[in-house]
Amino acid sequence: MKKTNSTSGIFVFSIINLILLITGYFLFWRIFQQIQISTRYYLAVSLIFAATLVCMVLFLRQSFIHINTEVREKIELQNSYLEQLNKTYEGTLKALTYALDFRDHETWGHSARMVAYAIAIGERMGLSREELQQLAWGGFLHDIGKIGVPDAILLKKDRLEPDEWETIKRHPQMGHGIVNQISANLNFSRITSDIVLYHHEHYDGRGYPFGLKEEEIPLPARIFAVTDALDAMTSDRPYRPACSMEEAIMEIRSLAGKQFCPWSVKALLEIGLKELKKIQDQVREMGDVVPIRERLVPINLNH
User: DSSP state, 288?
Assistant: First the structure.
């Protein structure tokens, strides 16, 4: 209704302007055709042009209001679409991780806790909101390559044989291939794919799959190497019970500059034991990513 009224107002001002301009032109032209012009005539011409000027100002104002209203409505519509797409992204990620969860039942909870820790570290290290969002997507998908690992190896409770371990070590590359297949449609950035591919690289170059070291490893992957270890140590496994958060932090601290990026470890220590336990409890209690979602914004689809 408001849009119709705004359009009608612009139309009315346009008609009035046209009439006043034609009238003013006619009267002004007659001034050049007459030698003697009365003061009343001059006054009439002046009033016509003054009215024309006022109408033009009102016309421009109404046009600006109309354009501003349309822009605001389009922005609101775009934000609505972005929110829906963001929910679709999260649903897609859940579907992918749930598919793996049917085979390895700890996967979704492990990914959710990792992402929560990683976002806290990323905030400490000054990452932007969009970088944090991509950090989250990478975290949820970091182990998706395990879909390609046979059940006999993935679910084995005994110590892995060397050839079985080599199969496990290929899951980052398999996951990277999966992410690349869907990245065009879901706008995953290089941050996401880097996490999937490099999260098992070690700062001292002894990780896999490529044996990268130090700054050769992208920062998001270095962050996830820390959070992956933190959650793995504080979670029960078939072959060992979970250790305490205090013990896990001490172990990670001792490996700073060796297995883990020292700057990522420093950010983890700055978060503190109390906050890390709080994050762990929140994700475990909710069984979802609500605490994570509240700290993020929708993905920017404009590039």
Answer: S
